[in-house]
Write a structure and sequence with these properties.
single chain; about 60 residues; Macrophage Migration Inhibitory Factor; two-stranded parallel ribbon; 4 strands; about 30% helix; Tautomerase/MIF_sf
Length: about 60
Amino acid sequence: MPTITVKLFEGRPVEVKKELAEALTRESCRVLGCEPGAVDILFEDVKKSDWATGGVLWSERD
């Protein structure tokens, strides 16, 4: 059973997450040869102030 964790900046619409979940599930099943019910996808919303790249918080990049 694959479990996929996706971390995104908070604020993405549910429709976007649903579309991504469907695409990830479809491709996981194609590559791994598993059934859709075996694929778990966890979305973790992250505040921009809790994510840094290159030593700079994303909240400071706006």
